[in-house]
Design brief:
- There is one protein chain.
- The protein has helices at about 15, 35-40, 45-55, 55-65, 120-135, 150-160, 185-190, and strands spanning about 10, 25-30, 70-80, 80-90, 105-110, 140-145, 165-170, 175-180.
- It is an alpha+beta fold.
- It has a single domain, classed as Aminopeptidase (3-Layer(aba) Sandwich), CATH 3.40.630.30.
- Strands 1-2-3-4-5-6-8-7 form an 8-stranded mixed β-sheet.
- It is globular.
- The protein starts with 9 loop residues before the first strand and ends in a 7-residue tail after the last helix.
- The structure holds coenzyme A (COA).
- The site of coenzyme A has 22 residues, from α3, β5, α5 and α6.
């Protein structure tokens, strides 16, 4: 699968990470291709978490059969040279039915269970925002759907700056809350809080 727009790696400097958890080395995004299925399979979740992020095989089957492979951007979150997380950004014709046409959506977000609780989820979300600010300057909103039973992920997203739109999508495994983040405003907030990292 082609990943035309994902050729630039984005690195979050130590100074930003230090606000999340001290002593983390640089963390970055790396484009993932359909040939990375086995590597992403190694990002194991607790059994009860799997339903929320989807099985890796189902995700990769979806990517392999995508009608819009150029509009789906799978990324690994890499720390200390190791893939520790994964997510997909979708845009334009590849957007899900619940999303307005002018946004980008995030899907299948996961941090390997051995690396959860160390700030990588929040850093991964920040990196998705940074990628958008760098590569999609015309898009203002990042949106995602989080299951109503997934209190941990919802808390992490809210801490990352997402707001609950109040809209609910009735998905196959239950109600999904639609969360949204104003990328431009996030940039302003980061400047305000003295992050202001450049990529
Ligand atoms: C949801 C998920 C991505 C979060 O990743 P993570 O690396 O564990 O999260 P972080 O360590 O970055 O935590 C981010 C914030 O949430 C807080 N947090 C972590 N665990 C928490 C918990 N159990 N309850 C409340 N807050 C919690 C952290 O304190 C941190 O806040 P801080 O930055 O103010 O300290 C990860 O748990 C995961 O992969 N879950 C399974 C798959 C899933 O549910 N994906 C979401 C699909 S929508």
């Amino acid at each position: 699968m082609k990943s035309r727009s994902d050729d630039q790696r984005i690195i979050l400097p130590n100074s930003r990470i230090a606000r999340i958890r001290p002593k983390l080395d640089d963390i970055d995004l790396r484009p993932v291709s359909i040939f990375d299925r086995a590597a992403i399979r190694r990002l194991v979740l607790d059994p009860e978490q799997e339903q929320f992020a989807g099985s890796v095989d189902a995700i990769f089957d979806g990517l392999q059969n995508s009608r819009h492979p150029d509009l789906e951007h799978p990324f690994a979150i890499v720390a200390l040279g190791l893939r520790i997380g994964f997510f997909i950004l979708r845009e334009k014709e590849a957007l899900p039915d619940w999303a307005p046409r002018e946004v980008i959506t995030m899907h299948s977000f996961r941090i390997c269970r051995t690396h959860q609780g160390k700030g990588y989820g929040r850093a991964g979300s920040d990196l998705a925002i940074a990628w958008m600010r760098h590569n999609r300057t015309d898009v203002r909103q990042l949106m995602l759907a989080v299951n109503a039973r997934n209190a941990l992920a919802r808390a992490v997203y809210l801490k990352s700056g997402f707001i609950d739109t109040g809209a609910i999508f009735r998905g196959p495994i239950g109600d999904q809350h639609l969360l949204s983040l104003d990328v431009q405003r996030q940039e302003d907030d980061q400047k305000f809080h003295g992050y202001g990292f450049s990529i």
